[in-house]
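Figure caption, in words: inputs first, then the predicted bound structure.
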Amino acid sequence: MNETFIATASGKANPVLPLLSDDVLLNCMHCGLCLPTCPTYNLTNLERHSPRGRIQLTRAIFENQLDDAKEIQDVSEAINSCLGCLACVTACPAGVDYETIFESAKSRVQSLEKKTLASLVRDVAMKELFPNPARFKAAARVLNLLQRSPLSNNLPASLKRACDLAPEFSERFFDETYKPAPDGEPVLFLSGCIMNVAMPDIHFDTATVLKKVGATIRLPKTQTCCGALHAHNGYLDEAKQMAERNIGAFEELDAPIVLNSAGCGAMMKHYPKLFEEGSPLRRRAESVAKRVRDLSEFLVERKFSPTRKVKAKIAYQDACHLEHGQKIKAEPRTLLRSAFAEVVELNSPECCGSAGIYNLLRPDWSERFLALKIEAIRKSNADYVATANPGCLLQLRYGLREAGLKTKAIHLATALKMAT
Ligand code: SF4
Ligand code: SF4
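Bound structure (iron/sulfur cluster present):
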């Protein structure tokens, strides 16, 4: 197999990539307009690290052309090095559904790869912890104890970086401490996996700014993690199961569904594509997805107006799954301009290198992308940098700490709360 284009449709039934049809792959007309927007292509200049190259490699998987272990390894490397940032989707004039191609390809390469100790640990976390909120919270409590114990100071180098990137696990979880006000327009809220146990303060800030527009958060009881990490890391069956559970949970009330995590919001808007067209679940997923709003989208719709202007300079870092996954770029800026004395742009449009768990799986490349972002923040001389995704927030905090910069990374909800 080589990296030349495969021009014709296979016409074969495809048992290995069930979400994909020939049509989706053949939409790519190989124009290359996506290439300059792709961080991994810009890093290596190699076709196999570009969206167009990865689409062709997915075609090879689709047509069952991978002949030996070396080819499987090469294709796995090319697919696994993709950030899933979706910058190529924004750039593509043909409307190629790269997200579905990427998720299908990840799922297949993962099933072909040899198991290692690291991949077995990941399997356990993805299959046994994330889909089960009770187990996930138990694990978070253990991590909270470990983080506070002297053990955390004596970790081997391989674990130290992961710990530096990890959030500080909280002693109080949002879903166990939040008490909804009896009045106000109800909006359903996804408390999520990591944010629920490690960033409850951001959720409380979100509740405060929502209150300012007359809305009160309600938490559907049977909700679970959105499944984005699963879909983007080859665990499509688990992603579908989690989507199905959330669809049921968020059907409890016909109200707006507001999310403050760009990745989770993009995933819930993407739920319909996980199910067969015309199926009852697809229709239910469509109806839920239509009600999903990012916090910034909802606040602009409801004409959020801060109480005062914060006298500070703030930069805004676009989260890929807000900018490219949900096409939301103007709303956070509009809100920040209303709340801060000065809002500055970062001269660094690409992904920060967080990308779910990419920063753990590909630390070398992740650090290269992060360095570009941190340099842009340094040049902005901003007091704060705001973003709307927990992964980006942790990545920026880690990068700023390592670089010794004083700029503080905060969530958009926290920035707006400062002005209320
Ligand atoms: S998702 Fe991002 S990293 Fe992956 S091919 Fe598209 S632009 Fe490149
Ligand atoms: S811009 Fe779209 S059509 Fe052109 S090469 Fe990239 S994915 Fe294919």
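DSSP finds 23 helices and eight strands in the chain.
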